[in-house]
Amino acid sequence: MATIDFNQIRSTPKSKNDSFESLAIQLFQANCKSPQGSSFFSLRGDGGDGGVEAYYKTPTGDILGIQAKYFFKLGNGEFGQIKKSLTTALKNHPTLSEYWIYIPFDLTGKAAEGKRGKSEVEKFEEWCDGIKTQKPNLHIKLVTAEVSRQQILEIDKSGGFVAYWFNENTLTSQKIQNCIDSAAAFAGPRFCSDLDIITEAHDALDSFGEIYDFKPWLVNIWKPLKLSFRTKAQYSEKVFSQTPESERVQAIQLLKVLLDKTSNKYNIIDQTVICSTLDIIRSLKPLCENAVKQQEQKFFAEHGEGSDTPSFRQFHAEYMCVFPAENLDASRELLASIIDIKNCLNSPLIQSCHARSFLLTGPAGAGKTHSIVSFAKRRLDKGAHTLVLFGEDFDNAEPWDVVRSKLGFGAVVGRDKLLSCLQASAQANNYCFVIAIDALNEGAKARKWKNKLPKIIQQLNEYPRIKIVVSSREIYNKLVVDERFPGYAYSHIGFTRNFHDVLSSFSQRYNVESEITPIFTDELRNPLLLHLVFKTHKSEDTCSLDVSTSGFSTIFSKYLKQIDDLLRERLDYVSPKNMVRAVMSKLSDFLAHSETQTINWETAVNTIKPILGNELLPEKFIDELVKEQLLILSATNDEDFLIRFGYQRFGDMLRASSIVQSYQETGNSDLSIFAEKLAILTDMECGILEALASILPENIGIEITDNRLGLDNDLAHRLFVKSLTWRSKQSVTPAIKEHMFGALRTGGLWQTVFESLFQLSIVPSHYLNAESWFKDFQWRQDFPSRDTYLSVALTDSYNKKGAIWFLIEALEKIEATSWPEESYKLASTALLWCCSATDRRVRDQATRCLGLLFKQYPVMCLHAVNTFTGCNDDYILESLILAMYTSCLLSPESVENFVDPLNRYIRANRSSNNILIREHSQLLRQELVKLGIEEDRISNQYVTPSLPLTWPILSDVQTLLKLENLPLNMRLWGDQLGPDFLRYVVEPRLKAFDLQSQNITLENIACWIMREAEYIGYPGYGNEALKHDLAT
To answer: Cα torsion for 397, 403, 406, 410, to the nearest 10°?
Structure first.
């Protein structure tokens, strides 16, 4: 064990004085006998210690504080510092009951001082006696060098603690920096230092690594939730008014406890507070759910189940000045508020904060490696240490041997000494030490992690300041972890927010100023694929970037050709063959049979040597491919080198292309030969099938769903749908219709089909965009059937931050977009389809964005009007005229652009009975006249709505009324009591008309409304609209 000499205490990361303070605090924590329930506070780094470096606050309010002084004698000046610190401590902490003073030397006794004066011991004891007289409840505890040594030896059984504090070269920031730099180099193209876009994974990792700043979260997220809950809780008496007494008392008591826990008295980030708050919610939530049910029972008994509507509430509030649903609404709102708090405290940001272990999963290329390396760099900037390792590092060594080796410890350092050293480092830096292991699934012995990882985590339990984060591709999760993993698991899918900002960042990174065709596909959330797309586009120097023009497989081929041209010039080879593609294809064939997706150096050299011939050295060629980041080279402990693809999908694309090419070379059109090749693919090779789904129609003109290929029908259609955004638009022809309908008929797939269509909705010249097949498909359906599926799909896409959410997000910043003109036209159409949604959020957001689009490009108004001429959806027509009116108000300088669209709109809808359509048309007309347009240039041809020649009666609507399970609120007439819609919406409005003089009865009106529902197509094809109503 190293000698404990406080003169030789480490000076890094700041100074010896700072190190001694940190060491003293650690010893104080280990030796101070604070009462149970005490809270610990460290003041280091807070700009002044206030007389104490750290302290315990006991449940009774007493303060147990510590002060460290790094000097080696007790002269008047030094003693004065101690006295001043105590004075300051008492001023800031009047209830100070213990004051520990750490010094790095031993006081001189009387023998050493002689008779000339008082010894250091005597001076200190005399001062303590004086303090005792003045403050009898304050105990001064002096901890000298010898006492400190004993305390150190007591806690450091392995020697790691001493090794850290008294060895200047152990675990330095520079050493950690070197390790992170090595990890970044090993990561290759999976880490891009100059393109670090914030994702939700960043936040969760930063929280886990103790560097996340929670102040904005407390203000912007937690405070509004807390205030909303407190407001809802004020109505607790009404909420639980129908609850049995014993249950009501219990609920009220729990509610008071929850109010207390969420008050400013407690730090909601504290683990104990989080756990206790969630425990309270677990007990309170069922009681609130029961209260809601009890309020519903009372409300339905008094007013009927059909009364639980906004119109019922509005009528009673406006006309009766009563609120019959007040208690019911209060119970629902309180429950919703409690659930919001629960979800917030269970969010990745909060749950990862106190986790000791963290599992980061996600698909290939989602940015897991980048997130981990970037996380390590951000932590180092804050003074926190992270060791980044990779699954392959552990192929031929035990985990702690790898950690020891990477950090520069000798082989004689045991596990306990190593971990004790890391623990001391973490305590010194005031941040946990994180061991990060990326890509567990990529090692040769990946399966061992399932048993190794729980053992490692258990061994870390003795060292609370050491955490571990691991990552794995999601398809390998069951291979490397199981239910024994005790930590927090987070799925990272790439860029899930600010998609427009992501594209802008990549455009700046690659200095791309051309138009970018928006395609809101999941693949373009993948950082690696975005790099490939932008690199290829940059080399071609085209005026627009549209991945759908050629498809991803062609872009990949162009990228390989681009690299081949570079290497041809650099290495001066003359072979006309694309050497890069040939070599990569050969390697992909080999790697397909490798469990670890790696190939060692010597095998790789021998594999590609026949391809390169005598013209090129295989070693040199591999080196060049590594430089171009097509391959990644990594060293093993036995001085061998392993090679793997820089991008995981490279291998899938190459193998799929190879299979297609070999089939084409046979010159045989019999697909049974191709089907045999597919049949031998294993479940682990599903990525190849995904690649084939896009390559087959591009190269051969057949779909993956072709029965002759012998694939399972459901699997084939899922692959087909996934390929739609990968493939070139030229490969999507009218012949695709039957496959689209097949996908829609495949169980559980229709929403995925819609999402793919949304992703392609604003791609110019694409057969499936918003104005081509998609429009025809929607137009052919009757209104109820169309609304049943489209509305659900729009809401789902918006809620899951899919294509519709991205479209709206992008158009909110329309002035910063750079799309082809055709995409803006298509965007107007896509937004108007969104306006058909029954979800008010989607409809309103889409209408607002449509207004912004018309403001930016007023000429788009005419295109939108022409596109939806003959539309029978009033929601769409309402939003269209409202957006036109709004954009005219916002851009009066473009007044001329609104004249023709308004005239065409009025002509197309002149017989509409919709008051919103008619009134907004008139408002726009008035605005145009006000801005100087002559009145005679604007149509005013709305006709007076005509009345039925013969009003229907009950017998005329029996077809509708006989529908099984028809909702009660649609049975407007009959033997039963009329629903609220008839009584509180229709009847009050009829009082303004003299119906009796025209022999029109209330029965006529009710039956006319029901017949109109039939006229628009209710209950829809296969009763789907009725089924939707019953389900919602």
So the answer is: -90
Q: Candidates 3.30.70, 2.40.50, 1.25.10, 1.10.287; correct CATH number of 731-937?
A: 1.25.10
Q: Which residue is listed with tokens 């008492």?
A: 90
CATH architecture observed for domain 173-209+355-490: 3-Layer(aba) Sandwich (3.40)
Q: Take residue 744 and report the two structure tokens written for it.
A: 């829609």
Query: Nearest to residue 529, comparing CAs of 801, 726, 721, 704?
Result: 726
Torsion of the alpha carbons at 65, 71, 76 and 82, rounded to the nearest 10: -10
Amino acid at 367: G
Please give the DSSP secondary-structure letter assigned to residue 975. S
pLDDT at 115: 55
Residue 943: burial class (beta carbons within 10 Å; 0-12, 13-18, 19+): exposed
Instruction: Tell me if domain 173-209+355-490 and domain 731-937 are identical in fold.
Output: no
Query: Average pLDDT for residues 474-495, to the nearest whole number?
Result: 76
Please give the pLDDT value at position 497.
55
Q: What is the SS3 string spanning 615-644?
A: CCCHHHHHHHHHHCCCEEEEECCCCCEEEE
φ, ψ of residue 673 to 5 degrees: the values are -65, -45
Q: Is the pTM of this model over 0.85?
A: no
Query: In the chain, pLDDT over 90 holds for what percent of residues?
Result: 55
Mutual angle of helices 499-509 and 527-540, in 10-degree steps: 40
Question: Which of 346, 323, 359 lies closest to 449, judged by CA?
Answer: 359
Distance CA 611, CA 589 (A): 14
What SS3 class is residue 366?
Answer: coil
d(CA 776, CA 827): 17
Tokens of 27: 């010893």
For 122, the token pair is 């005597």
Phi first, then psi: what are they for 515, rounded to 5°?
Answer: -65, 145
Which residues lie across from 468 on neighbouring strands?
357, 435
Kindly report the backbone phi and psi dihedral angles of residue 545, in degrees, each rounded to the nearest multiple of 5, phi listed first: -110, 110
Cα(710)–Cα(704) distance, integer angstroms: 9
Q: Which tokens belong to 130? A: 């004086």
Q: How far is it between the farthest Cα atoms of the chain?
A: 127
Q: Which two tokens stand for residue 296?
A: 């519903």
